[in-house]
Amino acid sequence: MEKNLKASQQRAIQYWFADGLVELSGGVIGLLLAIYFCVQQILQASQGLFAIIFLLVFVAAFGVRKLMLGYRERNTYRRTGFIEPKQAGEDRGLLGAEVVFTLLLLGFVLYTILRGIQTVEWMPAIAGVVLAFIFSTAGYRTRLMRFYFLAGFCLFLGGFLAVSGLGDLWGSAILSLGTSLVLFAFGILTRLSYLRQAAVTVEQSDER
Amino acid sequence: MNAEPQSRPSLTGVDRLIHEPSRSVIMAVLSAVKSADFLYLQRETGLTKGNLTVHLSKLEAAGYITIEKTYRGKLPLTLCSLTKPGKQAFDEYRQQLREFVNGGDGNQ
């Protein structure tokens, strides 16, 4: 019985990621970022123009999220119900880890700037570490193994790109593209599995 | 002279309102999230609408959950969430179950 209760709690916690839409929208955002870094690398334009393009990417990312939530409202919630997850800040241990990580990251970035270390391309490495941390916390919260895989993937790819000599922008573009492709793959698999399981609810009679 | 038999924990003192299988699942789900709607709970428990309504009403009458009828966009929702006494009662119930399974030490 205790096992059943734990399983019910686990399913409820994982429900936010059960329909695959979060991964799919994350994949789209990753793709947009990859395009942005490619454009920045290829085009010889002013920093002002790139700032505008980045702003557009940022707005587009919000748009993708809003579209995802709207679609979820029409599809997932009607099909399998609605759940409002607990606030992320309710887990104090995790909140502390996030604060410590942010401070360490800022300290590290400051250190590399002050010491002028340029033996490796830091941008993909730092982005890889940040993504790995984000996916690890998602994995810790939900106990979904695919997030730990994504975290490992980002860490490995970010590290590899940092020493590959491709440069900051190409490195970041490849990291964004790689992460986006893995997110698409997980999103499609999760979506298919969700659609198979989430048959339309058929009301049974109360009489037996 | 026989030694006094060590008292083993029993399930006689558990909260009967929560101990019913469907209601314990409802409480477990609601303890893990901020709120859940009727359809989700129906799918999770496998109950019919009528039966689920009865169980939810009992939990609401005991002050363990709150039920709120609302909208999310155009979608009408019946949202259920655990109250503070409900959370306390469920935690105690889980503790009693663990103690019973572990023979009294209450660990794990």
Question: What does this protein look like?
Answer:
The complex is a heterodimer of chains A (208) and B (108). Chain A has helices at residues 2-14, 21-42, 47-74, 76-80, 92-115, 122-142, 145-164, 168-197; one strand at residues 83-84. By secondary structure, chain A is mainly α. Chain A is globular and about 60 Å long. In chain A, 78% of the residues lie in helices and 1% in strands. Chain B is α+β, with helices and mostly antiparallel strands. Helices cover 52% and strands 18% of the residues of chain B. Chain B contains five helices and three strands. Chain B has helices spanning 16-19, 21-32, 38-45, 49-61, 84-102, and strands spanning 35-37, 65-72, 75-82. In chain B, strands 1-3-2 form a three-stranded antiparallel beta sheet. Chain B is elongated, with a radius of gyration of 17 Å. The termini of chain B are far apart. The mean pLDDT of chain B is 86.
